[in-house]
Design goal:
Length: about 300
């Protein structure tokens, strides 16, 4: 019965509801997403746990509003896949309205981002401005997926990432060498840096950054892999407002060596302070905790 329940949940939350939103005219789809987010208990476990963690960390009280906003962010993020499959590049670019990315041309680019808001369309925006970037992804494993339909959704999404960016993703497991090879060939890389360190590696590690005033441990592998490659860097995120307009926030660096993990944590912290429900990983907050005493 649990297996059936997980499949039905994935069918509803990853396929049917996002597809229904995406098949409507854009404004109507966004309006439907708002209604569904306020009335259906979608993404229940992540929403409930995320609201509780958010309340603990920032001492805010209105968890009900947080859950609705969190569900909206999740639903739009999933609908973005189906918009990308059913609409033109012109449609995506008009809705995203990304600014000109202020990074040097003729050099590889390291794009740094977070599990925040809706980032899929940024792959096309970067490609449209001449920045080919290979997205760094975990290697998909059917045995670790919650359900067959969740695995199928993940496969479809990573395929869309490759199509929108114009270059294949890089999968973890030997990624450092591949990242170095890509940058040496003049191809950029795009990584999400708010990933918990595996317990086996991070249990005894001290914090390397501060997030919302709390010591945290964030991975530095992408920064280390890109050092010395002559690359520039761009911190970028996008998130949808309740009316469907998109906010694209960027910070450019002449050299990737000018970015450190503290700066990335600060960029994420600013976003969490301004629009906390857009972060997908609130429910994983304990996994980011590092031993205090070494934050720089």
């Amino acid at each position: 019965m649990r297996r059936v329940s997980l499949e039905l949940q994935a069918l509803l939350e990853l396929w049917l509801l996002p597809l229904a939103v995406a098949l409507l005219p854009y404004a109507a789809g966004i309006a439907l997403a708002r209604v569904l987010s306020r009335t259906l208990p979608m993404y229940r476990r992540a929403a409930e746990a995320g609201a509780a963690r958010w309340h603990e960390v920032v001492a805010q009280a209105d968890e009900s509003d947080f859950r609705a906003r969190f569900r909206f962010a999740q639903l739009v993020d999933h609908a973005d896949l189906f918009w990308s499959l059913t609409r033109s590049r012109t449609f995506l670019r008009a809705r995203l309205a990304a600014p000109r990315f202020d990074v040097p041309t003729g050099r590889p680019l390291v794009v740094l981002s977070f599990h925040y808001g809706q980032g899929l369309w940024l792959m096309d925006a970067l490609a449209s401005q001449g920045h080919r970037v290979r997205f760094v992804s975990i290697r998909l494993d059917r045995a670790e997926a919650a359900s067959t339909l969740a695995y199928a959704y993940a496969r479809l999404r990573i395929a869309a990432v490759g199509r929108l960016s114009g270059v294949p993703p890089i999968f973890t497991g030997g990624a450092r060498r591949t990242i170095g090879d890509a940058l040496a060939a003049g191809v950029g890389v795009y990584g999400l840096v708010d990933v918990p360190i595996p317990e086996s590696a991070g249990a005894q590690a001290r914090a390397n950054a501060s997030l919302l005033g709390h010591p945290v441990l964030l991975p530095t592998g992408l920064l280390e892999s890109a050092a010395g490659a002559g690359a520039s860097a761009l911190i970028v995120t996008s998130h949808a407002m309740p009316d469907g307009s998109r906010v694209v926030e960027t910070q450019a660096f002449e050299r990737v060596e000018d970015v450190d993990i503290a700066a990335l944590a600060g960029a994420l912290g600013n976003r969490l302070a301004a629009a906390p429900a857009n972060w997908h990983f609130w429910h994983l907050w304990p996994a980011f905790a590092g031993r205090a005493g070494a934050v720089r």
